[in-house]
Amino acid sequence: MRAMVYRGPYKIRVEEKPMPALEHPNDAIVRVTLAAICGSDLHLYHGMMPDTRIGHTFGHEFIGVVEQIGSSVQNLQVGDRVMVPFNIFCGSCWFCARGLFSNCHNVNPNATAVGGIYGYSHTTGGYDGGQAEFVRVPFADVGPVRIPDWMHDEDAVLLTDAAATGYFGAQLGEIVEGDTVTVLGAGPVGLIAAQSAWLMGAGRVIVVDHLQERLEKARTMAYAETLNYDEYDDVVVELKKRTDYLGADVVIEAVGAEADGNLTQQITGPKLKLQGGSATALNWAIDGVRKGGTVSVVGAYGPIPNAVKFGDALNKGLTLRMNQTPVKRQWPRMFEHVRNGYLTPRDMITHRFPLEQIPEAYHVFSSKLDGCIKPLVVPGAG
Ligand SMILES: NC(=O)c1ccc[n+]([C@@H]2O[C@H](COP(=O)([O-])OP(=O)(O)OC[C@H]3O[C@@H](n4cnc5c(N)ncnc54)[C@H](O)[C@@H]3O)[C@@H](O)[C@H]2O)c1
Ligand SMILES: [Zn+2]
Ligand SMILES: [Zn+2]
């Protein structure tokens, strides 16, 4: 089969790989019909994630058709159209029993630190991902869900991660009616976080980024106020000015370890690797939230330490909440919001690339060329 293959930082190819096989009675093989590239894939692409091995196939946002099922699979049939959450999880361990699907204890040799994720390096279990024609889906009775008839494929694929993560980011913020919510990052995750904040009762939503087309999307798609951090010497001062000099009630950090906006962080982080990445957005969140407020972090950080303003967080009495998204837990409520038009994930899609052109897709998305906000990848096309 044809699959995206990692060859080293900034080196992606499409290669012929063996078809994935059933390795366990509860596995399924899914023929991928639509995949996406996530902002998290860029951390892999840039060589930021430890133990990203040559030959690994990325891709944790995908939908497809069940091609083959193992002997114990009961909930799926060959031919079913399914959406597959990015988490691989067993459904029955201590963590899964409490809905903490992203913290499953049974799917990763490194499970005390992180759960299982498709196509996300050996740090998260080493499972090959869905930027390919076929993918092995472990615990097939647990993760995948049949795509409802009314749901658009392009919404379904985004619900497997980006949209669910934006919603989760807003949830972790514990928004109370009337709250002012600041969202750092107007990528796919931040855009849905902004839409979701309204659904949870926000009175004001302010989105921060420096890419004009994304800020424009935040205005049109999420009716948010926007702030371009390139236009201010000190973005935190501007955020405070806009919030009665107190700070926002809730800040959602939807940027992660490759944040820009602070040269020292960029040099010591992504460039010299003296820390796990740049904690600029996280520090803006800590500085930009009011005392006693909540910082929700869904931006991704690797396992290596970062220079985070922890003392300030302590002295301000902040609540810090964070996790990888337990995607399937969000779905029942999100499906209703998508069906009713309150969440509109596919509005953010700007590009569709055939699988054979995935190196170009990574380049365009990574360099934010051509107004790219969210690229999809279509196996078997072109
Ligand atoms: N927790 C999870 O389960 C989970 C799931 C999906 C994605 N993520 C992470 O969420 C983050 C966002 O994902 P995405 O797909 O939207 O990524 P993206 O790269 O498309 O978007 C990130 C945005 O942040 C902006 N940005 C950079 N520095 C900034 C700063 N200092 N302040 C404000 N904005 C800044 C960039 O211009 C960009 O628009 C990534 O770190 C990704 O790895 C986490
Ligand atoms: Zn992702
Ligand atoms: Zn589990």
Can you put this structure into words, describing what you see?
This protein has helices at about 40-45, 155-160, 160-170, 190-200, 210-220, 235-240, 265-270, 280-290, 310-315, 325-340, 360-365, and strands at about 1-10, 10-15, 30-35, 60-70, 80-85, 85-90, 115, 135, 145, 180-185, 205-210, 225-230, 250-255, 290-295, 320, 350-355, 375-380. It is α/β, with parallel strands linked by helices. It has two domains: about 1-160 and about 325-380, Quinone Oxidoreductase, Chain A, domain 1, CATH 3.90.180.10; about 165-320, Rossmann fold (3-Layer(aba) Sandwich). Strands 3, 4, 5, 8, 9, 16 and 17 form a seven-stranded mixed sheet that branches. The chain is globular, with a radius of gyration of 20 Å.
* Radius of gyration over all CA atoms, rounded: 20 Å
Low-pLDDT segments: none
Number of strands: 17
Which overall shape is indicated by the principal axes computed on the Cα atoms? globular
Q: What is the share of helical residues?
A: 25-40%
The CATH C-level class name of the largest domain: Alpha Beta
Indicate the proportion of strand residues.
15-25%
